[in-house]
Write a structure and sequence with these properties.
Elements: H1 3-44, H2 50-74
Length: 75
């Protein structure tokens, strides 16, 4: 197997990793903004469902950060 094939494959893998990492960074930022919006909504319009929404938002943020760390660690 020539060296050129290996370097091209490595470039593809690094490109895919960079895409996934960048996508998951934006996804984590989105989850953080969503969490903040739910907090602000809960303060301005208190309802019975606010603790459940906050829990789901925290869970969403945690999953997005976990995915980011998994993708950084796996590749």
């Amino acid at each position: 197997m020539p060296i050129d094939d290996l370097t091209n494959g490595l470039q593809v893998i690094l490109g895919v990793k960079a895409f996934f990492v960048l996508f998951l960074i934006f996804f984590a930022i989105f989850a953080l903004i969503l969490f903040r919006q739910i907090q602000l909504m809960g303060r301005s319009l208190p309802t019975v469902i606010n603790p459940y929404l906050a829990f789901v938002a925290i869970l969403h943020l945690g999953v997005s950060l976990a995915l980011l760390f998994v993708v950084i660690g796996v590749f």
